[in-house]
TrEMBL record:
This is Mediator of RNA polymerase II transcription subunit 23. It comes from Monopterus albus. InterPro entries: Mediator_Med23. Belongs to the Mediator complex subunit 23 family. It holds the Pfam family Med23.
Length: 1382
């Protein structure tokens, strides 16, 4: 019968430790000779070896554990010592694996600090054999040793300390960098887990741990962005959506990689950053992005809640100090309160913040502060949420508000009724309204929590009660609004005031008013509800109003009413859609419910109205809604009923606006959502719309530097979109347009060249068709032939020839046009545009040319065959080359300027109208008088009048509330300007166009963005055309001079010197100019009051917040300067790199932040100069000196410390500025770094300082590369080693090997893993032995094992290369171990 393992082991080891009787009698006096000891050891090991050989692998660990247990059960130190010697010899002779022995020793329950002799002997053995353990085993053992040391109490007898110190020696040996038992990077990770920042290590370890942690501070600094805690984004700027601004949603800390001892401020919660972002209007998406909040998952975020509360307290403080506070004036805090209520509703509605928690926290923070000037505004904000959600939630959630009331309203006497003719009165009544809602809820719930009306609110309450009894409520004060706010949860009382509002905009049943065009009338209510009134309604009341409007529109659509919507209703609905807090009923309902319902009911008049609203009245609509609408429009275009002149024109115009207005940073995120089915966002038949999309794509990828560093669209999100477009509408681009495209797009269109019809063929086909026209006799045959689907789209060319030869068109011509239909006619316009170019190219000039111009203008203005905007769009989108392109642009210029028709329309429209529609009550009257003066004829009416005999047409017009030919032309004018900029010979024509029509930009919804995109995209083309650049900026900005406050855009200095500069004497700005310009952005971002820019209502502004406005106008001004981009870039860097009296020292990082934002928002020539500065710093004496730096070289790289101690040097400034610029850069801009490293910096780097500088420069951005462009991360990873190789070969001594190796381990374990192993291994093989020893854990190679002894016992294990590796590698001298992941 087989004996058990315990029995066999007992017989082996008890034999050795048993003693003779005489030894026991004379204990402590009898002693073995060393020879006897050795004999015993050898015989014991021999027996054990024999037994070990028979043991199965799975029992090995159990066996070793038994030996340790047996040893620890002995009481004689001599026996323990002997058994430990046995274990040591077993390990040395490779009988037992050292890791297994160490693990068994340290995990033994008998190993306690009280058994001091056992403790000492155990750790001495540990120290002796740990050298043979593989590096991951050493890491695990370090963890358990440290945990074991933690069991020693704070106070022990000093007599036993020397024995306890054996454990410290083990830790010291493991951490010894020269012993190199494991990457020090592993050790720091374990230490930081056990002793996080700010926690002291065990007293037994003394300064051992803190010194080791301090040795990693340089590595942490190399991986940190200088001044990161002071950097701020511009909300809704393209850089703001990247990963740079992410925070941990529970702690608000930066997500730092690796357990390194980073500077203290990086571990702090970044409340300043979150507060700043929350303060910005339209920042809620960015807040969700920063904190990783998802609307689909209801998760409370206490840190966000706390910041919202702090923001309310801040607003209370602002209200206390602001001198005037009037809604009509719109003080800074007025805008802040408005914004706060919007933020609060969003975050509480999606349950990211808890309302009762926030109110209690507010009470706590306001207690004893005496801040009461803003109390009404605070209650107004709370009323917004209470009135909208009290019906669905428990009363208890809202009762804390009464606690706040007791604190903020200490009055004993009644609060008086304010002047209700002022909008501010609605805020004064907020607390009374809250009480009414709470009381109503308590009654409905039959709750015992009913609160009697507080004495101080009695007068206001009585006033409201009395007003309810008055059934004739007028619109001349805010009484109706007050009643809506107070009783919105009481259906019985609410119907009266809401009914008055609704009636005011619906119009009473019988009254009708005319709309433009024939046979079109609307309900007769004209003035919309003013914004002041809408702002004064609570969110709940606004939701009721917008719901009522949407329901009415759907009902009218279903009833197919012949009477159009009242202008007041349309305008009021547009105004309500601006409120983000009612998004679900507002814009979301508009796109997802109202539009589809109206479409389903085939209510084309209402559909036309909704599209007009979207084109001319919407602001800050989130991009996904705009793309959704674009997709709707494309599917709409395929429906037969929309093949109607006016509706087709409207859908194409709206689609064009949607496409061209897409922000550069919006294009990629939106279109990547449709990669599986790009058809939905592309037009199946409109070449113009698809071309517009390609131009937008080209502009967006250029501005965001998406294609930087790549030469093909392969593998990018653009590929499928472009290929689908080429399937739907194959086309070419003119070489002058193509040359402006990013290189990968150019390559795509060169590969996909489409053969074009020759001019000769087109002329021949027209002649042939014209012969048919003249020779055919039967009217029906003619109509059928020329309007048939599939017949060549040449009919407009034929009409042209008829007019050229006979001066008139007969009735059949009209019939054919009608039969062709709006959709098919576009193809005819396209061919006609090409035909015109050929006709004009071959005309003899003089009389014949004038005749051509006259006929063309007649076709537009007299016969109404084609609208001006469609014809210009087609002409601008053709792809003519050379002389023909010039002729094409000449025709555009003639159409726009030669006859007075269009110029007069533009001049009158600009003179008589203002773009601030939200402030107007008489838009409709002006709109009607304009249409009476210049009626739009969209159904060939002019032609019907001219044919012989004349035809009486009474087409049914769809309602037009906002549009006209001038406004429809604006997005086309944007395209025309771009086409003219591409072709040098037509520059003068462009200047003429801008002189005559530039005033239209007063009505452009994004004039500054358009200028910014144009100057950015055409930077190369406009470099040497300074006067044209100036003309463009002047035309667009000055069009708004009567509608904007002074100083709203361009700086005073620029207006004085830059705008009026002469060609021969260009103005070159000095440093002061650049400092003031950057200072303006710094002050704006700091929220300085009064700010550098005039206050405005951001809801109707082109930009969502002051910082976004400041950034864009600054960039426009810098690009408009008659100074090369390189010089401007250098001047911007000098704002902080040179000593500037205008730049305050204490605020330097805010200035660097502003420079980073501006320079990264400019074209490449402006920001690439930073690379030159880096090169010059690397060549400076401070970094090329080969002697050891007298101080700590890492102090040189610590910008903040240097700056505060006035000991800064140029290299630390350049480092901090480079970090700021790259932190704000797009991933496209950052993707130039690998090339810059390998081609420019690598040949320069020869000293340790240079190497550490480069590591510090690029190291902090590896995290971005890993998340956004892995290829770059891997290239940089290899470049780091190549530079090290050069330094290793150049320098005789290396003083900073440890920080260099720590950094490279950090890069490996946090970023590159095994991906660059093969390239790196070859480099490490060539390094000096000490470096090779330290880096030997980077790869698997055995050859790299050096003879330098890292361990006294056995050769260390070759390591697997990734922390997550589970591969098994055996060293020649030991049995196999499986490495556990870190």
């Amino acid at each position: 019968m087989a004996l058990s393992m315990e029995t066999q082991l007992q017989s082996i080891f008890e034999d050795v430790v048993k003693t003779e009787m005489i030894e026991e009698a004379f204990a402590g006096m009898v002693m073995d000779t060393p020879e006897d000891e050795r004999t015993k050891l050898i015989s014991c090991l021999g027996a054990f070896r024999e037994y070990w050989g028979t043991l199965p692998q799975e029992s090995h660990e159990q066996c070793v554990q038994w030996i340790v247990r047996f040893t620890h059960s002995q009481h004689s130190p001599k026996r323990i010592s002997f058994l430990y010697d046995c274990l040591a010899m077993a390990v040395e002779t490779s009988l037992l694996p050292p890791r297994m022995v160490c693990a068994a020793l340290i995990s033994s329950e008998s190993l306690e600090w009280e058994r001091t002799q056992l403790w000492e002997l155990t750790f001495k053995l540990f120290r002796k054999i740990i050298g043979g353990v593989d590096y991951k085993g050493v890491r695990d053992l370090l963890k358990t040793v440290l945990e074991k040391i933690e069991t020693i109490p704070i106070t022990v007898s000093s007599a036993i300390v020397p024995q306890l110190l054996a454990a410290r020696e083990v830790v010291q040996y493991i951490l010894d960098r020269n012993a190199c038992l494991l990457p020090a990077y592993f050790a720091i990770a374990e230490i930081r887990k056990l002793y996080p920042e700010g926690q002291l290590s065990h007293w037994l370890l003394g300064s051992l741990i803190s010194d080791f942690v301090d040795s990693f501070r340089p590595t942490a600094r190399i991986n940190s962005i200088c001044g990161r805690c002071s950097l701020l984004p511009v909300v809704n700027n393209s850089g703001a959506i990247c990963n740079s601004w992410k925070l941990d949603p529970t702690t608000l800390r930066f997500p730092l990689r690796g357990l390194l001892p980073f500077d203290k401020d990086l571990f702090e919660p970044q409340t300043f950053l979150l507060r700043y972002v929350l303060e910005q209007p339209y920042s809620r998406d960015m807040v969700c992005n920063m904190l990783g909040l998802n609307k689909a998952f209801k998760q409370r975020c206490p840190v966000l809640e706390e910041q919202l509360v702090d923001l309310v307290v801040y607003a209370m403080e602002r209200s206390e100090t602001e001198e005037y506070f009037d809604a009509d004036v719109g003080g800074t805090s007025q805008l802040l309160w408005q914004h706060l209520s919007s933020q609060l509703i969003f975050f509480v509605l999606f349950q990211f913040a808890s309302f009762p928690h926030m109110v209690l926290s507010l009470h706590q923070k306001l207690a004893g502060r005496g801040l009461i000037k803003g109390r009404d505004h605070l209650m107004w904000v709370l009323l917004q949420f209470i009135s909208g959600s009290i019906l669905k939630n428990a009363l208890g959630d809202f009762l804390p508000v009464m606690k706040l009331f007791d604190l903020l309203y200490p009055e004993k006497e009644c609060i008086p009724v304010p002047d209700i003719s002022k909008p501010q009165s609605t805020h004064s009544f907020a607390m009374t309204c809250i009480w009414i809602h709470l009381n109503r809820k308590a009654q409905n719930d039959n709750s015992k929590l009913q609160i009697p009306i507080p004495h101080s609110l009695k007068l206001q309450h009585e006033f409201l009660q009395q007003s309810l009894r008055n059934k004739n409520l007028g619109m001349n004060d805010y009484k109706i609004v007050l009643l809506c706010n107070a009783y919105s949860t009481n259906t019985e009382y609410f119907a009266l005031p809401m009914g008055v509002l609704v009636e005011a905009i619906y119009g009473n049943g019988s009254m009708r008013i005319p709309l433009p065009g024939t046979n079109c009338v609307a309900s007769g209510s004209v003035p919309p509800l003013p914004m002041n009134l809408l702002d004064s309604l609570t969110v709940h009341a606004k939701m009721s109003l917008i719901h009522s409007i949407a329901t009415r529109v759907i009902k009218l659509a279903q009833a197919k009413s012949s009477v159009a919507l009242a202008p007041a209703l349309v305008e009021t609905y547009s105004r309500l859609l601006v409120y983000m807090e009612i998004e679900s009923l507002g814009i979301k309902g508009f796109i997802s419910q109202l539009l589809p319902n109206v479409f389903k009911s085939h209510a084309w008049g209402i559909l036309h109205t909704l599209l007009e609203m979207f084109s001319y009245r919407m602001h800050h609509i989130q991009p996904h809604y705009r793309i959704q609408l674009l997709s709707h429009l494309h599917s709409l275009a395929a429906v037969p009923q929309t093949n109607q002149n006016q509706l087709h024109l409207c859908t194409e115009s709206t689609a064009l606006r949607l496409i061209t207005a897409l922000g550069s940073s919006e294009v990629q995120p939106q279109f990547t959502r449709f990669l599986n089915d790009p058809k939905t966002v592309l037009s199946a038949e409109s070449e113009e719309l698809n071309r517009a999309l390609i131009l937008t794509l080209a502009r967006a990828t250029h501005v965001t530097d998406f294609f930087t560093g790549s030469d093909s669209i392969q593998g990018t999100w653009c590929k499928d979109i472009l290929q689908t477009i080429m399937t739907f509408t194959p086309h070419n681009w003119a070489s002058h347009t193509l040359s402006c495209f990013p290189a990968p797009l150019q390559a795509f269109f060169k590969q996909n060249n489409v053969p074009q019809e020759s001019r000769f063929n087109l002329k021949k086909n027209v002649e042939e068709e014209y012969r048919k026209w003249k020779s055919m006799a039967n009217e029906n045959d003619i109509i059928t032939h020329f309007s048939m689907q599939g017949s060549p789209p040449l009919f407009l060319c034929l009409l042209w020839k008829m007019l050229l030869e006979t001066d008139h068109i007969n009735q059949i011509g009209f019939r054919v046009l009608e039969r062709i239909g709006a959709r098919a006619l576009v193809a005819h316009v396209r061919t006609f545009a090409d035909f015109l170019v050929y006709e004009f190219s071959t005309s003899a000039g003089g009389q014949q040319l004038n005749k051509c111009i006259e006929i063309l203008n007649d076709m537009v203005w007299k016969f109404n065959i084609v609208t001006l905007d469609r014809l210009i769009l087609c002409l601008a989108m053709r792809s003519h080359e050379g002389n023909e392109a010039q002729v094409c642009y000449f025709i555009i210029q003639l159409l726009l300027l030669k006859p007075n028709d269009f110029r007069n329309r533009v001049n009158d429209f600009v003179k008589e109208n203002a773009p601030e529609h939200w402030l107007q009550s008489d838009w409709h009257n002006k709109h009607m008088s304009y249409h009476k003066k210049y009626p739009e004829k969209l159904y060939f009416e002019g032609l019907a009048d001219q044919v012989n005999p004349p035809m009486q047409l009474q087409p049914q017009y769809l309602p037009i509330y906002f549009g006209n030919v001038c406004l429809r032309f604006l997005p086309i004018f944007d395209i025309v300007i771009h086409r003219f900029l591409e072709l040098l010979p037509v520059s003068k024509s462009l200047e003429t166009l801008l002189d005559h029509l530039g005033g239209l930009y007063k009505f452009h919804d994004r004039p500054v963005t358009y200028l910014y995109n144009t100057l950015h995209y055409y930077e190369r083309h406009l470099r040497d055309r300074t006067s044209l650049k100036r003309k463009l900026v002047h035309a667009i900005i000055s069009s708004l001079k009567d509608n904007r406050m002074p100083g709203w855009c361009l700086s005073e200095t620029y207006l004085k010197f830059g705008m009026n500069a002469r060609e021969d004497n260009a103005w070159i700005p000095d440093d002061t100019y650049y400092c003031k310009l950057i200072g303006r952005l710094v002050d704006t971002m700091a929220g300085k009051s009064p700010g550098p820019f005039p206050n405005c209502d951001w809801r109707f502004n082109e930009f969502p917040n002051p910082a976004a406005h400041a950034l864009h106008v600054t960039c426009v001004e810098l690009m408009a300067l008659a100074v090369p981009g390189k010089d401007v870039g250098n001047a911007l860097l000098n704002v902080v790199l040179k000593s500037q009296p205008l730049v305050p020292r204490e605020n330097i990082t805010a200035w660097m932040n502003a420079i980073g934002l501006v320079i990264t928002a400019l074209p490449e020539p402006y920001w690439i100069v930073l690379h030159d500065r880096i090169v010059s710093v690397l060549g400076s004496l401070a970094l090329t000196a080969e002697t050891e730096w007298p101080g700590d070289p890492f102090a040189l790289l610590d910008f903040t410390a240097c700056h505060q101690s006035y000991s800064e040097m140029n290299c630390s400034y350049v480092l901090a500025l480079a970090h700021t610029v790259w932190h704000h850069s797009s991933i496209g801009q950052l993707s130039l770094i690998p090339k810059f490293l390998s081609e420019t910096l690598k040949p320069i780097v020869q000293t340790e300082f240079q190497l550490l500088y480069v590591y510090n420069l690029v190291g902090p951005f590896m995290q971005r590369f890993q998340m956004e462009r892995t290829r770059c991360m891997l290239e940089i990873g290899v470049a780091f080693y190549e530079m090290l190789q050069a330094v290793d070969q150049h320098c005789q001594h290396l003083f900073y090997m440890d920080p260099i190796c720590d950094f490279l381990y950090h890069i490996k374990y946090m970023y590159t893993g095994d991906s660059v192993k093969d390239q790196v291994e070859k480099i490490i093989m060539t390094l000096r032995p000490a470096m090779k020893l330290r880096l030997r854990f980077v790869t698997h190679s055995y050859m790299m094992e050096t003879s330098s002894s890292a361990a006294s016992a056995s050769t260390p294990q070759p390591p697997p290369s990734s922390l997550a590796s589970t591969s098994t590698t055996a060293s020649p001298s030991s049995t196999q171990h499986t490495h556990a992941p870190m």
